[in-house]
Design a protein that fits this description.
Blueprint: E1 6-7, E2 31-38, E3 42-50, H1 61-65, E4 68-70, E5 73-77, E6 83-86, H2 88-101, H3 109-122, E7 134-143, E8 156-165, E9 176-180, H4 198-202, H5 205-213, E10 218-220, E11 232-233, E12 236-242, E13 245-249, H6 259-270, E14 274-278, H7 282-290, E15 294-301, E16 305-314, E17 317-320, H8 328-341, E18 352-355
Parallel strand pairs: 1-3, 9-10, 9-16, 13-14
Antiparallel strand pairs: 2-3, 2-8, 4-7, 5-6, 5-7, 6-18, 7-8, 11-12, 12-13, 12-15, 15-16, 16-17
This protein binds 2-OXO-4-methylpentanoic acid.
2-OXO-4-methylpentanoic acid is lined by residues 72, 235, 301-304.
Length: 356
Amino acid sequence: MAQQIRIERTKSPKQKPDPNNLGFGKYFTDHMFIMDYSPDKGWHDPRIVPYAPLQLDPSTMVFHYGQAVFEGLKAYRADDGRILLFRPEQNMKRINASNERLCIPPIDVDFAVEAIKTLVKVDSDWIPDGKGTSLYIRPFIISTDPYLGVKPSSTYMFIIILSPSGAYYPGGINPVKIYVETSYVRAVKGGTGAAKTPGNYAASLKAQADAEKKGYIQVLWLDAIEKKYVEEVGSMNVFFVIGDEVVTPSLEGTILPGVTRSSAIDMLRSMDIKVTERKITIQELYDAHEKGLLREAFGTGTAAVISPIGELNWEGKIITINDGKIGPISQKLYDSLTALQYGKAPDKFGWVQEVK
Ligand code: COI
């Protein structure tokens, strides 16, 4: 039986941020959703309460061993005022795939989508309506046993917070410069690379910090064994236009199966553009560039949307892609995807859900 979500509204609503200066993930709304898990009750006590710090024992397992998972999706404000979500059930299915890898009990996908919709409705006056802005939704699960032994926790909290946000990269849709990482690695087969778990992101910070010092915004990861095959860019999956074909690394268990990635593949194919998922070597990209065939490169992600890549630096060899400008396929994909998400185009894929 579906559980009832208890709602306790804040008595002191916060001041809203400047809608023209949101940045990404800096501001949080008035409420949050919480649900607890214990072995005897399962997932229970779903509630929406005023947004506030959590009080957790310093021995809480998540602080020590990082047994946690998270997701990212967005609520969009359409021109006619409707509130739209993009494929939320895909994110909740993926959180369960991450849960399985991290020994966290699964959540009910339909109920979790209901929880997202209820919270978004409660804080609907926080959804920004400026161009390229949205309400970023961050569901996450943390292990909460106060215990220092290394084992799966027996208790958990599922929490959803909301953040009115603009573009993930400060330059918006302007092409980003990416450093091809050859010292550090992100994931190996059998590891946690396909799960959305904080440890993957913690382990990426050193490479990103080093790349930033060299003037690059993020790193492109290569496979951990041969340092040959292109994988992903931490906050986005990657696509390359080589000749008339779009290629993207196949899911081999080390990269995140992005919701925007799979939507981009379907949308490009619906435009009669050939898309191939396969292993791609970094050398092949440089060779294609040499021959004038590497036409475009772009990343896909909920936060990043479609972000063109204008420059790659692989061991000091710098290539500029499409003169550092957004290419026609990236632009068309960005326009088509955002038109769907903001309710400006007919939803022929059945991906958009209205929050009523
Ligand atoms: C997202 O695109 O939603 C992500 O979770 C990526 C990132 C901000 C960590």
